[in-house]
C-alpha cells in the first residue's frame, strides 16, 4: 500500500463518535482498496491525558495531544475531525479551516445558526474539503431510496414522515451534563432532541425531498429538574425532551417529524416514509438492512409492501461487503462516509453533506425551536 | 327465542355503514345468546325505492320506507339507526329523540359543533338510549388496551400518536360528491379526512388517554378541482385531503395525529401508539387481531415488543367467537357495539360512546380545522 | 326472498364445527344475494336433548332431533351436514347418500381409508351433491395462491412446506376423550395431529401443487398417559401428538410437513410456502388476510417479499365484504364454502373438495401413519 | 500495544472466508482491547501469486506464500488458519498440527468422517489449540439463546426446527466447479447443501439442544447436468441441491431440518426455533439482531411473541460495540470467534466448537447423506 496517498488525520474527541469515525478510517482501506487515499491515524486529542492515551493505544493512533490547538498547529495533519461536544465545533472548525486543514465534523454543525454561519464562511474562504457526519445517508437502504426518488419513480410527493424515538432518559434519577451526558445539557448541546435526533431526520428529509419551507412545532421537557453531574446540584433541565413539528416542503409535500427520548421501548428508532403518487418507500434504523416499498405499478391483485433485503452487490455499497443475505451494521455508514470523502479528494467533487448542507439543517432546527417557543409557524428562510 | 324482548329497528340509509350495522343486528343474537334483547329488522329507509327494496330483501327487513319521517312516525319502531351522509344526522336524530325513539348514529355525530350541540340537547331532554358508532373501541385489541391503560400498568403517559392513512383519492379522475362519494363533498360531509378519519383516532385517543386540551394543525387539499358527480361540472374541492396536528392532552402527554387519503400503499391504516413510563402499547387496523406491547418490567436481557394475538377466550369479546389462533374481522366491531348497546338496555348504563362523548370529539375536530385555517393553536374547550 | 329455491339443511352435531357451518348458512344469503339457493335451517341433531334444544334456539333451527337416523328419514331435508366426531362420519354419510340426500361433511372424511372408500362409493352410486369442509381453500389469500400457481407464474416448483402448530395439549393435566376432547382419543378421531391438522395442510398442498407420491414420516406421543374423561381412569395415549414428514410430489417438488400440539406459543399456525423457479408464495393463518410473494421478475435492486393485504374487491371473494383495508376472519372461509356449494347446485359442477378429493387426502394421511409406524418410505398410491 | 503477546497468523486461502477471518483478526484488537493476545497477519497463502499478493496488500499481511507447506514450515507462524476448499482441510490441518501449530479451520471440518477423524486424532496428539468456524454461535442473539436454554427457562424441549434456504443456483446456466463455484463440485466440497448449509444448522442445534440420535433424510438434485468451469464440458451434477431430514435428539425432542439453494426469494435464511414446555425461542439470519421469544409465564391476556432487539450492553458481546438500537452485521460473528479464541489462549479453556465438536457435526451430516441414499433411518453413532 506504499503507493497510496496519505490522508493524515487529527481526531478531536474520544467519545462514541470518535470510535465510529476511527473505525471508519481503519475499515475504508480494507474494503475500498481502489481508493487513492489512505487515512493515517496521526493523532487523537482530548483534555484528559490518561483517557486519550488509552484511546490512542487501543485504536492505533501514532500519537496523542491534550490541546486541540496543538493538533491544528501540526504540519503533519491534513484533516481535522471534530468529535467533541457541540459547543466546541465552531472554534475548532474555524481554526482548522484558517490553518488550511480539511475539516470533518460530527453533526449537528453547531448549537445555533449564529454559530454555524461563520463556520461555513471560514470553510468557504479557506476552500478546504469538508463534510459533516449525517451518517444515515450512507446506510445502503437510504442511499437506495435517494436513487429511487431521483429516478422519478414516485411521481409527485404528497407526504414525508420521520421519527427518531428513544427511551433512555425516562428515569428521573439520570443526571444531566458532563461526561457522556452532555447531550442533556443545553449549554453544551444547543438543544435536546431537536439537534441530536431531529437534525438527522431533517438532513435525510431535505436530501430526499428538497427543502423545508416553514414549520410549526411543539416541544416538551417532561423531567423539569435533574442533578447536574458536574456540580452535583439539582438544576433546571433546559433541553427539549421531545419535539414534534409539521411542515411544508418546497415541493408541496406535507411533512411530520417527531423525536423524543421518552418513547418506552424504542432505542434508536430513526424512521422515514415517503408517499408519492405512484409509489411509497419507508425505512427504519432498527431494521436498517431492509427497505420497504409499495409500487402502484404492480399488478392490482398482488400489490403490497415489499420488504427488500439490501445485501446484494448491485445495491449501494454492498459490492464491498459479503454475500447476499448477510447484513451489515450501524458502523458501516461511517465507513461509507469516510470512503466517499476519500473518493471526493480524487474527483474534486464535494462530499455531501457539506458544511453548507449542514447549515441548512441548522436553520430548520432553529426555526423548529423558535416555532415551539413562540407557538407560531416559522419560515426556515430556505425558500 | 320467543321469550326475548324485541328491539325494533328502523334503519335510515343503505350504504356501507347500513350494511355493517345490519350485520351487527343479525349476528348479535347468534353470538350473544345471553342478551335479553333481540333486534328485529323492522324497516329500512332510503329515497330510491328500487335500492331500498333490494336492500330490505337482501338483509331480511320486514318492510321499507322512502321517507325517514315515516320511520319516525311509526309506532312499531323502538330505535332509529342513522346511516345517512353526515348532513342529515342532526335533523333525523333530533326528530327521533323528540319522538321518544332510541337513537344510534354513525360517526361523526354531525358536520359541526353548532349542528351537534342541539342533537345532544335533544337526546338529553328526551332521555333516550343512544350511542355513536365509533366502532374501533370494540376491536378486541383496542378494548384490551383500554383495560391495560386503566390498570395503571403504563404509569405516566408521555406520548400518544395515531394515524389514519388511505390512498383512494390520489387519482385526479375521481369525481367528488353524490352516491358513494359524498365524503369528498364538504357540504355533505362537513370536512374531509378530519371528520371521516381523524374523528375515529380522536375518539380512541380520548377514551384511552383523556381529553385533548389544545391543538395545532395543518391541512392540505392536494387536488384543487374535481368533476362533481351530481352536476358533471369541474368544481373547487373544499374538503381537507390531509390533516396533521399535534396537541397536549390534559394529562400532560404530547399527541400527534395524521390522516390522509394520499398515502400510497395504505388502505385503512388506522394506528395508535401510547408510550408510558413503564410500558408502551400499539395497534393498527391492518393487523387488527394483534396488540403490540413493550413492558419495561420484563427481564432486561429479553425486553422487546410483544406481538399478542388476540384470539383467546379470556381476551375481550373472544369468548363469543372461535378458538385460539382463529381471527375475527372488521365487521365484528359493529357486532360488539350492537351487543353492548343491547346489554346497556338491560343494565341501564349508557352505551359509550354516547352522543355526549361524540360531541367532545366533534369539538376537537372543529378546533383542528380552525387551527389549520388560522395557522394558530386552538383550545378545544374541553379542559 | 320468497322466490329463492330452498336448500333444507339437517345438521348433525353441535360442537365448534356445527357453529361454523351454521354461521356459513346464515351469512351466505346476506353476502351472496345473487345465489339461487337459500339454505333453510330445518333441523339440528345431537344425542343430548337439552344441548341440541339450546343450540336450535340460539341459531334459529326450526326443529331438533336426537337421533341422526331421524334426520335422514325426514322428507323435508335436502342436505345432511355431518359435524360429528370422526367415528360417525361413515355411517351417517352412507345412510344419507343412500336416502338420496346431498352430503356435506366436516374433515377429515373418515378415520381410515378403509372407512372412507365405501363413503365415496355410496356418494358416487347415489350421484348426490357433496363436499368436505377443508375450509382453508376458501381463505381469499389461499384462493389467490391457487390462481397465481395455475397462471404458471411460478414456473417449475421446487419446494412446498407446510406447518400446523398448536400448543393446547402441553399440560399433562389435560384429560383425553369425551366432550370437546374426542380429538385426543384415537378411537373417535382415527389419529391425532395427522388427521386433525396435517389433513388440512395436505388438502391445500395437493390442490395447489398436485398429488403426493411417497412419504417418509415420524410421529411422537410426548405425554404417554392421560386420564380419560369418560372413564376417569389413566389410560395410554394412542394418538400422535406430533407428526413430521417429507415427501415427493408428482411434479418433482420436495415437500416437508409438520404438525404438533406441543409448539409453545403457536395457537393455530397453519402455514404454507411454495418456492418456484420464478416466484415464491407463502401464507399463514395467524395473518390470514395477507399473502406474501417474492417475484424474481421485479427489478433486481428492489426484489423482496411483498406483504399483500387481501381486502380489495378484485381479490377472491372480497367484492362480497367491506372496503379496502378492512379484514375478514376465520369464519368467512366457511361462508365461502357454503356459497360455493350453493353455486355448484346452480351450475351442476362439483363443489371441491369433493368426497373423492378428500379420499386422496385420507390416503396420504394413512401412508404417513404407516410410514411412521414402519420407519420406512410409503407410497401413497396416488400416482 | 507493544506489551501484548503476539499470535502470528498464517492464513491459507483468499476467498470469502479468508476475508471474514482476516477482518476478525483486525477488528479484535480494536473492540476487545482487554485481550492479552494480538493477532499479527504474518502471511497469507494461495496458489496464484498475483491473487495472493493483491490480497496481502489489501489486508495488510506482512508477506505471502504460494505453497501452504511453506507456511507450516515457517518458524514465525503460531497458528494456521485454513480457508481453502474442503478437500484440502485434512492435509493442511494434520500437517499443521504435526508441526505444533495451532489450527483454526473453516467449516465443515472435512468432506467425510473418514477424512475428519484423523484430523481430530492429529490435533489431540499434538495438543494444540484449535477451533472450527461455525460462526453463527457467536451471533449475539444465538449466544443469548444458549444462555436462556441453559438456564432451564424452556423446560422440557419438544421441538427443534431449522432451515437454511438460498436461491443462487436456480439458473441452469450457472456452471459448477472451479473458482468461487467449488461448492457445487462434490469432489471439492464433499457434499452440497448438507455440508455447506445444514452443517451450520446441525452445529447450532447440537450446541443448543444436545446430540442428534438418528436421522431420516431425503436429498434432491434439481439440475442434473451443468457445464464444469474447469473443463468447459457438460457434466453430471453430483452434489445435493436440497436436503430435508427429521430426527430424534437424545433429549427426546423431534427435529426437522431443511436446506436448499432453490428457495426463490431466500438469500441466506438460516433459521432456528426451539419449542419448550414453558417457552419458545426463534431466530433467523436475515433479522440477525433480533431474538424472538414466547414465554408462557407472561400474564395470560398479554402472552405473545416478543421481538427482542439485541443491541444492549448487557446482551452477549454488545458491550463491545455501539449504543442501544444500533445493530451489528454478519462479519461480527467472526470477530467474536477470533476474540473468544484469543481469550481461550489466556484461560487454557478450549474454544468451542473444537475439532472434536465439528467431528460430531460431520457424523450427523454423513448419517444424513447415507439415510437419503439408502432411503432408511440411520443412527448418528453419537448416543
TrEMBL record, chains A, B, C, D:
<dbReference type="InterPro" id="IPR036291">
    <property type="entry name" value="NAD(P)-bd_dom_sf"/>
</dbReference>
<keyword id="KW-0560">Oxidoreductase</keyword>
<feature type="domain" description="GFO/IDH/MocA-like oxidoreductase">
    <location>
        <begin position="144"/>
        <end position="282"/>
    </location>
</feature>
<dbReference type="InterPro" id="IPR055170">
    <property type="entry name" value="GFO_IDH_MocA-like_dom"/>
</dbReference>
<dbReference type="InterPro" id="IPR000683">
    <property type="entry name" value="Gfo/Idh/MocA-like_OxRdtase_N"/>
</dbReference>
<dbReference type="InterPro" id="IPR050463">
    <property type="entry name" value="Gfo/Idh/MocA_oxidrdct_glycsds"/>
</dbReference>
<dbReference type="Pfam" id="PF22725">
    <property type="entry name" value="GFO_IDH_MocA_C3"/>
</dbReference>
<protein>
    <submittedName>
        <fullName>Gfo/Idh/MocA family oxidoreductase</fullName>
    </submittedName>
</protein>
<dbReference type="Pfam" id="PF01408">
    <property type="entry name" value="GFO_IDH_MocA"/>
</dbReference>
<feature type="domain" description="Gfo/Idh/MocA-like oxidoreductase N-terminal">
    <location>
        <begin position="7"/>
        <end position="132"/>
    </location>
</feature>
Amino acid at each position: 500500500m506504499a503507493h497510496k496517498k496519505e490522508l493524515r488525520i487529527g481526531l478531536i474527541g474520544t467519545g462514541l463518535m470518535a470510535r465510529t469515525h476511527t473505525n471508519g478510517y481503519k475499515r475504508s482501506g480494507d474494503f475500498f482498496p481502489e481508493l487513492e487515499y489512505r487515512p493515517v491515524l496521526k493523532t487523537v486529542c482530548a483534555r484528559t491525558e490518561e483517557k486519550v492515551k488509552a484511546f490512542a493505544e487501543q485504536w492505533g493512533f501514532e500519537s496523542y495531544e491534550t490541546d486541540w490547538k496543538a493538533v491544528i498547529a501540526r504540519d503533519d495533519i491534513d484533516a481535522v475531525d471534530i468529535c467533541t461536544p457541540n459547543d466546541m465545533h465552531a472554534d475548532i472548525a474555524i481554526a482548522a479551516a484558517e490553518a488550511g486543514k480539511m475539516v470533518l465534523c460530527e453533526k449537528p454543525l453547531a448549537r445555533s445558526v449564529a454559530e454555524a454561519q461563520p463556520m461555513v464562511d471560514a470553510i468557504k474562504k479557506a476552500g478546504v474539503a469538508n463534510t459533516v457526519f449525517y451518517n444515515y445517508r450512507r446506510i445502503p437502504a437510504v442511499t437506495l431510496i435517494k436513487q429511487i426518488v431521483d429516478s422519478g419513480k414516485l411521481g409527485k410527493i404528497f407526504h414525508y414522515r420521520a421519527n427518531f424515538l428513544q427511551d433512555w432518559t425516562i428515569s428521573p434519577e439520570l443526571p444531566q451534563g458532563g461526561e457522556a451526558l452532555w447531550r442533556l445539557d443545553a449549554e453544551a448541546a444547543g438543544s435536546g432532541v431537536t439537534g441530536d435526533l431531529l437534525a438527522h431526520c431533517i438532513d435525510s428529509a431535505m436530501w430526499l425531498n428538497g427543502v423545508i419551507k416553514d414549520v410549526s412545532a411543539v416541544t416538551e421537557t417532561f423531567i423539569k429538574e435533574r442533578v447536574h453531574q458536574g456540580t452535583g446540584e439539582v438544576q433546571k433541565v433546559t433541553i427539549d425532551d421531545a419535539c414534534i413539528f409539521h411542515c411544508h416542503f418546497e415541493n408541496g409535500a406535507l411533512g411530520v417529524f417527531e423525536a423524543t427520548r421518552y418513547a418506552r421501548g424504542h432505542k434508536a428508532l430513526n424512521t422515514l416514509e415517503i408517499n408519492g403518487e405512484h409509489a411509497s418507500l419507508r425505512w427504519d434504523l432498527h431494521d436498517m438492512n431492509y427497505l420497504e416499498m409499495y409500487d402502484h405499478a404492480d399488478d392490482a391483485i398482488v400489490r403490497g409492501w415489499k420488504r427488500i433485503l439490501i445485501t446484494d452487490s448491485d445495491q449501494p455499497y454492498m459490492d464491498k461487503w459479503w454475500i447476499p443475505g448477510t447484513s451489515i451494521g450501524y458502523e458501516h455508514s461511517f465507513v461509507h462516509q469516510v470512503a466517499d470523502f476519500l473518493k471526493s479528494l480524487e474527483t474534486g467533487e464535494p462530499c455531501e453533506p457539506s458544511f453548507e448542507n449542514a447549515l441548512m439543517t441548522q436553520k430548520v432546527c432553529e426555526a423548529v425551536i423558535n416555532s415551539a417557543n413562540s407557538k407560531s409557524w416559522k419560515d426556515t428562510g430556505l425558500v
